[in-house]
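Reopening: structure tokens for the heme C complex, inputs below.
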Amino acid sequence: MAEMPKISLPEQFLSLTPNIHSGSSPNHSQLLVLAEMGIQTIISVDGPPPPEKYSHLEQINYIHIPVGYSTITDQQLSDIISAIRLSQELKTGVYIHCHHGKHRAPVAISAALRSMNMIDLETSLDHVKKSGLADRYKGLKQAIHDAVPGKSLPSPRKLRKAYPPEDIIENMSHIDKLFKKLKSANKQNWPVTPDSNHEEIALLLEEKIRELKRIQHDYIHEEFETLRLHSETSSKKLTLALQAKDYTAAQKNIQALSTSCKSCHAEFRD
Ligand code: HEC
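Re-run output (same inputs, fresh job):
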């Protein structure tokens, strides 16, 4: 028997309202399936812009509003709301996606609809739970609570098909700030205070190092990726050590990470 052609939706595809859905990065055939369903406003909140060829598909309006893992800023919220309003004018459905469709996109859309008073808090929290938002992204979850209806927001920026990829220097300066905080905590033997959040900082650092992989840049070649992976591994071990409150291991991995920053800089910067 001939196989049926597979019509597949992007992974993690979940609907928040009949017209508004979130999930993972769609591929070309999934985009066409979405367009066929009338979902023609596609918002990417992923860091890297959507591939050039997708962002120019005729039947689709692709909008890029990159967001991070630590929070949804008021500016980003305002831009997302503006994209939703545009979809309402154009009478199209909306699909908002990040990379995996579990954390940033479901949170961003829930926060936006909540601040537009289109859904209540319970529905928002239910949507991010179903999408698989991990507890460790506390700032993202907080963004939903903070998106109270009627909140005053900055005016939206011009909606664009692609914001340039976050530049490697900008990424490095985030990495640097996060790593400095961890080194200083390590020096003080990981003090536990009501507002200490070592694990969360370590996790953000890990994400930033992982993101380096997807920044399109001249630097990206095999050797760079090998060195980046060393950093990612040490950083992951550091997060795990802090989660396990194993401060001896944490200290060891701070040193390993520091060495790996230096070896990549020796190759690619100095
Ligand atoms: C896989 C390679 C790689 C790794 C790993 C890496 N870096 Fe970098 N870093 C670079 C490159 C390349 C530049 C220079 C970017 C440029 O000038 O375009 C840079 C630049 C920097 C800068 C200077 C930014 C500026 O304002 O000019 C800082 C600070 C920095 N890195 C901190 C760190 C820290 C801290 C770590 C480890 C936790 C780290 N980097 C790990 C490749 C790496």
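The longest strand covers residues 39-44. The CA atoms of residues 23 and 64 lie 15 Å apart. Marking as resolved unless the reporter disagrees.
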